[in-house]
Amino acid sequence: MPNNTTTPAVDFEEIEDDEYDPSDYGFIISADGELKSLMYPEEMLGEPPEEIQLILKLFGIADIKELEHRTIH
């Protein structure tokens, strides 16, 4: 049975390079939905926010510590 969930529309605003903060997370995702790279603040490696944990779970990553010595792409 297909999963017929819908995703709400999200408004994006343009961000300048200098608007990134050292505490920001960044995800690079390929056109086919594969997680290619993840940028994260080192001090948050132990316990990222719940929202980040949910995103990681979408890519099959249960614990961000799995990424310490792993090449994603």
What does this 3D model show about the protein?
Helix content is 12%, strand content 12%. It has a domain at 41-73. It has one helix and two strands. A hairpin with a 5-residue loop joins β1 and β2 (35-39). The chain has one helix spanning 50-58, and strands at residues 26-29, 35-39. The protein is an alpha+beta fold and 73 residues long. The model has no long low-confidence stretch (mean pLDDT 78). It is globular, with a radius of gyration of 14 Å. The termini are far apart. A two-stranded antiparallel sheet has the order 1-2.
Helix % is 10-25%
- How would you sum up the global shape? globular
Query: Describe the biggest sheet?
Result: 2 strands, antiparallel
User: Which strand-content bin applies to the residues?
Assistant: 5-15%
SSE class: alpha+beta
Count of distinct strands: 2
Secondary-structure element order, as H and E? EEH
Q: pLDDT under 50 segments (min length 5)? A: none
Radius of gyration: 14 Å
- What is the residue-mean pLDDT, rounded to a whole number? 78
Question: What is the overall number of helices?
Answer: 1
Q: Can you list the strand order of the major beta sheet? A: 1-2
Cα(first) to Cα(last) distance is 31 Å
